[in-house]
Amino acid sequence: MDADRPDLGGARRTGAGPMNQLIEAVELLLTPETWTGATGMGARLLQHLQYTGLAVALAALIALPIGLAVGHSGVGRGPAVMITGVVRALPTLGLITLVALFAGLGLTAPMVALVILAVPSILAGAYSGVGSVDAPVVDAASAQGMSTWQVLWKVEVPLGLPIIIGGLRLAVLQVVATATLAAYVGSGGLGAPLFLGLRTYDYPLLLAASLVVIVLAITLEVVFALVQRVLRRALRGTS
Predict the structure, then answer these.
(1) Residue 238: its pLDDT value, please?
(2) What's 40's DSSP letter?
(3) How far does Cα 29 stand from its chain's mean position?
C-alpha cells in the first residue's frame, strides 16, 4: 500500500462512471478507517489546517502593520494597490516550483508561496478598513486629545474591524484552496491523497480529498461570515 494512501479497510472501489466514483468517494469518507492513522484523512486535514494557519499568521505579521499604516496616513496607498494586484497575478504553482528549486522539497516552498498568496487580501483589508472610517470621526477623536496611535487603535481599527476581518477571511479561503499544492513538492495536507488519487487513477480517493477541502472551505467561510456579522451588529449597537 502507498504510504500516502489512508487505511481504507477494504472499501469498495469500482471506479466505473463519474456518479459511481462520487458515491464511492462519499462511502470512503464514511469509512472510519479512512480517518485514522498517520496518513489517514484526519491527519491530512490537521496538517492542512496547520499549513493554512501558519501561512495566514505569517502573512498577517507582514501585511497588517503595512496596511494599517497606509490606511491611517494615506501615504503609499497607490503603490500598495498596485503591489496587491501584481502579487495576486503570480501563479502559485509556478512560484512553488521556483522556490523549490532553491529550497528543495519540503514545506518551505509551499509556505513561501502561500504567504505571498495571503498577503494581498490581508493588506487590502487592512488599509480599506482603516481608510473607511469617516474623517469627522477621526477629527473628533483628535480634537479630544487622542494621539495618532490612540486614534488608530481606539477608533480606526475597531470601526474598520469588519473589513479587516474580511481581508483575513479571503486570505484564509484562498490558502485553504491552494494548500493542496504543498503535496506537489513532498509536503502533506489534503493534497497528498488528492495527488495520490490523480497519480494512481484512484478517482474516488481524489474526489474524497476534494470534498474534504470543499467542506473545510465552506465551514471556514461560514465561521468568518458569522464573525463579521457579529462585529457589524456590535458596531451598530455602539454607534
Answers:
(1) 60
(2) S
(3) 23
